[in-house]
Amino acid sequence: MTVCIVGLGLMGGSFALSLKNSLKICTIIGYDLNKDHQFQAKNLNLVHHIAKDFDEVKKSDIIILAIPVEAIIKTLKLLEGIDSKTTIIDLGSTKEKISIQTPKSIKKNLILAHPMTGTEKVGPSAAFSTLYRDKIVVLCDLEHSGKHQQAQAIKIFEALSMKISYMKSKEHDSHAAFISHLPHAISFALANSVLKQEDPKSILALSAGGFRDMSRIAKSSPIMWSDIFRQNKTNILTSIEAFNKELTYLEKLIKDEEWEKMQKWMKNANLLHNIL
Amino acid sequence: MTVCIVGLGLMGGSFALSLKNSLKICTIIGYDLNKDHQFQAKNLNLVHHIAKDFDEVKKSDIIILAIPVEAIIKTLKLLEGIDSKTTIIDLGSTKEKISIQTPKSIKKNLILAHPMTGTEKVGPSAAFSTLYRDKIVVLCDLEHSGKHQQAQAIKIFEALSMKISYMKSKEHDSHAAFISHLPHAISFALANSVLKQEDPKSILALSAGGFRDMSRIAKSSPIMWSDIFRQNKTNILTSIEAFNKELTYLEKLIKDEEWEKMQKWMKNANLLHNIL
Fold first, then answer.
1. Pairing with B195, which of A159, A246, B5, B257 sits 20 to 30 Å away (CA)?
2. pLDDT tens digit string along A18-47?
3. Same structural domain for residues A189 and A119?
4. A216 at the B interface (CB within 8 A)?
5. Element (H, E) at B49
6. Burial group, residue A210, by CB count within 10 angstroms (0-12, 13-18, 19+)
7. In this complex, which of B201, B242, B254 lies closest to A229 when CB atoms are compared?
């Protein structure tokens, strides 16, 4: 069986490496428009070999799309006409727009997946074999995919030791806005607000765990994230609005010197303890 | 030499434990208004013994105030009349208000210190001996402290293997607002915005590293943090305003579908890479 990984950055590179280790009967092929990424992925032994052209990608049994979400939509159009037995798995962070824009003829080929994992690092050299282990992968609108494809996808994610969760793509996008996209929006804004101060170096010299943790994902890829914000526009605006409401409330409590109300509000935030 | 730690939570407990390990000639005494904390600190061997009353605290050579910042101001008033050789070190996260409100007669006794370290955990059981190791401690307005006290404080922080940084308390409070207080404000607001959604459990079930890192400090102590927000009111409001400006800009870019401008804005945030 051949598995072709399209996009050999952190997500695709780690996917390739994990599968190479766990599904030893498979041939893992790599594909990336960036020649430098192809070269690195081969050198780092992330894949068995690099596809010589897009035709070789199309002939693979399983195609993994580990590229920015706008590129996923474009690539799905190029995959029209593939064999009805081929399985395509996209790893995009948004799902509804991809689902809607997939050509009808390959709807059954496609598995909409979102692995809830990642780091702020980019490129093949950031790949590591345990990125997916014990993490959650959300499979969306699975009933629209073919039975064969469903079975293949479950085999792949089980090989990566992932926990599978099922959801409608609409519900996924609204949850992902809060749990993943909003934190990225906040982290980018926090980084920029400090960097624009008069003397950012002196401020950052004092940084401890709290700031480092919160600003880490502000180092994430601008292309990947502007794509996500584009595709999940409405949900992200809703989540930013909900967050703004809380921060504005805190601001008012500070201005009005309402320390007891503030403690009550913070105690509510502490309840996260009970769930996470 | 006797060192008395007032406040036996995460910060005080860890301070006691580290000093016990590194300055073996010292007797480490503990004091806490919370009897349960005293009992735990003794049981966990964080201190050699518990002070029988506040008079014993006052007779110590070095007094460490590891309590919320409003309590620091109250306690400093109770310390009026101590020996001129006694060293008081406060570990509060704000410095200017404490500096202003310290009784004149003990100004030389006091060292204004802010160790840039911590975790979201609370109480004596959260204490660990390496909390301070290799971390930065900011000493403020040091020229106002007595020569003897300066030497004692430097000895103590060197024993904890800390890196010492010097600053005016005014400058410290403005930097700390951005690097520490703003991230806490954001984290509390993020936690509350998710917890107030219709089905927070389903959302949180998907949480990965990014969200966990950003919400971790939302589990911090409400009393400690409302005190800090009270004492550093103006600087915190300034930092929230700077952050809001960035988030509002992002919101506008999303609404206007300005994806290229968004990438430019995110690339600027990526510059954090070069400093942190």
1. B257
2. 999 999 999 999 999 999 999 999 999 999
3. no
4. yes
5. strand B49-50
6. buried
7. B254
